[in-house]
Amino acid sequence: MKKLIALIMAMAMVLSLAACGSNSSAPAASKDEAASSAAAAEGSASAQAPADSDSDLAYIQEKGVLTVGITDFEPMDYKDENGEWIGFDADMAKLFAESLGVSVEFVEIDWDNKILELDGKSIDCVWNGMTLTDEVLSAMECTEAYLNNAQVAVVNADVADQYQDMDSLADLTFAVESGSAGQAQAVENGLNYTEVQNQAAALMEVAAGTSDAAIIDSLMAAAMVGEGTSYENLTYTVGLNSEEYGVGFRKGSDLAEALDDFFDTCKEDGTLEQIANTYKVQAALVK
Questions:
Q1: Which CATH fold topology does 56-148+244-284 show?
Q2: Concatenated DSSP letters for 131-194?
Q3: pLDDT digits (tens, 9 = 90+) for 191-208
Q4: What is the DSSP letter of 180?
Q5: Distances from the Cα of 48 to the Cαs of 61, 62, 167, in angstroms?
Q6: Do residues 273 and 282 make contact, with C-beta atoms less than 8 angstroms apart?
Q7: How far apart are CA 253 and CA 258, in angstroms?
Q8: pLDDT tens digits, residue range 93-110?
Q9: CATH number for the segment(s) 151-241
Q10: What are the residue ranges spanned by the domains of the chain?
Q11: Cα(142)–Cα(180) distance, rounded to whole angstroms?
Q12: pTM score > 0.90 for this model?
């Protein structure tokens, strides 16, 4: 009897172990099934990843708008009587956006924060008569130069004959746009200066008598001061340097090359010179 009981218990244990083994794991997938699952997972991941994720051009076209960082700077970017942004840079930006199949949006920025605005993607480019300084070239992906420029001293016309060389400027107090090439020239030449929001504000300081002079771009001075302008009592005298304008995008952006190609096309078909003539900057075009 004892042997019979022992035999029955042994058989029960074997059956129990077999049942546990059967319920503890699902049948192993075949190699084909595993490969199919892996491919499906990879396809799903690819579908979720954005196409051309490193392309600024693809990013702009996907969102449908090119956001351009500017300041109020005639003849490059300024508003007409209807409040629309016009100017040499503004008109070219509109055409470039159109060539990409997107709209354009102009955003006034604090010029001193242009790199932060760009990297933070609140704007897509800085297109505002921007001087190609070492700082700009190291922080942005820039186009080739398209306009020549200089920084000039603006003073009251009735005292202009007293300020015809660098030595004569030493005792003046200048208004300069914060973060601008004009400010850089004031620092480099050891001039006394006060920072203001933009170059238009610098001219207002001189006209109001709160600053003796201003340092602004020569292209702006040609459009904004002297006979027939809003500042007939002002004129520009000493040229402090020579420089070139370019457009800046985020570092590594493929939009800089795209814009260079667009500029080349506009040179060949005459569009660039036509718009330059409209805003009287044709003499400054880089040949």
A1: D-Maltodextrin-Binding Protein; domain 2 (3.40.190)
A2: E--HHHHHHEEEPPP-EEE-EEEEEEGGGGGG--SGGGGTT-EEEEETTSHHHHHHHHTT-EEE
A3: 999 999 999 999 999 999
A4: S
A5: 18, 15, 64
A6: yes
A7: 10
A8: 999 999 999 999 999 999
A9: 3.40.190.10
A10: 56-148+244-284, 151-241
A11: 17
A12: no
